[in-house]
Amino acid sequence: MQRTKKCYLAVFIILLCMGLIACKNNSSDTEGDNNLVELTNIEDTEIVTDTNPQENASQRLRKVIKHDAGFSEDGTTWDLITEYEYSQEGYLIREISYDSDGNLLDDNVEYIYDDNGELIRQNNYVKDCLIGYVLFEYNQEKQLIKEEIYGSNDSSDSFEMTGKVEHTYDSNGDLVKTETNEIPITIRNSYDETNRIIKKEFSNGLVEKYYYVSEESELVAKKVVSVPAYTTTYNYSYDSKGNLTEEVIETDNGSSSQRITYEYEEVIS
């Protein structure tokens, strides 16, 4: 029972983060720190990105292997390996985790899409047992507006709703509020002159700032997340195709450091 509750909490936090970052749209609020865009050059590298996940399906990556390693100030270390499996259309369909010895961990996730390629359901498993799922709802503009979280009922084989996340957008299509179990968090977005988001300010005190690889690129080179107690910096590196290859996470108080690397396997036609 205790483990199940922890699973629900972890899923809930992940979903909230997904909802909060899923909303770069078409408006251009240039208020705020427009000088935040710090350019990081990638020498001798041409960035090529796919604009449509349906195009060149046979050339897309089928599997991404994520190596998550880190250490804390007290000497504690960890090493987590996660495999992300994709369909030939480029949609994430499965997430499986292993420990550093290659042993399969209990938790894994499955993603289901509709005919339009929109994520409509996330199934959460412990080994082969379904312990809960999440349903996603969109508006006519294909913006995510609701996430309903369901968990198993200990007294029966049924599932009951354990959480709900709702997203509200303004007339420009920008996410302005996320409400989690009736606790609202308002969001103020700032953009640069090319309509790239450079800052998110949340009513709970959290601030996210974004820095890009170049003036033309949509690839984020660095993200800085600040809360009243400390600041966490995320540094990103990419290969020549624009695939994320490394993510280094550091806190300014020295409490933890984390390095995540990514490997890619090509689709076998």
Fill in the keyword field for this structure.
globular; 1 helix; single chain; Porin; 16-stranded antiparallel β-barrel; mainly beta; 269 residues
Describe it.
The protein is mainly β. It has a single domain (2-266), classed as Porin (Beta Barrel). 7% of the residues lie in helices and 51% in strands. The chain contains one helix and 16 strands. It has a 16-stranded antiparallel β-barrel. The radius of gyration is 19 Å and the shape is globular. The N and C termini lie far apart (44 Å).
Set out the fold topology.
Blueprint: H1 2-21, E1 61-72, E2 77-86, E3 92-98, E4 104-113, E5 119-126, E6 129-138, E7 144-152, E8 159-169, E9 175-180, E10 183-191, E11 197-202, E12 207-212, E13 220-226, E14 231-238, E15 244-251, E16 256-266
Antiparallel strand pairs: 1-2, 1-16, 2-3, 3-4, 4-5, 5-6, 6-7, 7-8, 8-9, 9-10, 10-11, 11-12, 12-13, 13-14, 14-15, 15-16
- Principal-axes geometry comes out as globular
Average pLDDT score:
78
Uncertain segments of ≥5 residues (pLDDT<50)?
1-61
Order of helices and strands: HEEEEEEEEEEEEEEEE
The CATH class label is: Mainly Beta
Adjacency order of strands in the biggest sheet: 1-2-3-4-5-6-7-8-9-10-11-12-13-14-15-16
Classify the secondary structure makeup into a structural class: mainly beta
Q: What is the share of helical residues?
A: under 10%
- CATH domain topology: Porin
* Biggest pleated sheet: 16 strands, antiparallel, barrel
Which CATH architecture is right?
A: Beta Barrel
Strand content range: over 45%
- The count of helical stretches stands at 1
Number of strands: 16
Instruction: State the distance separating the first and last CA atoms.
Output: 44 Å
Number of domains: 1
**Rg value:** 19 Å
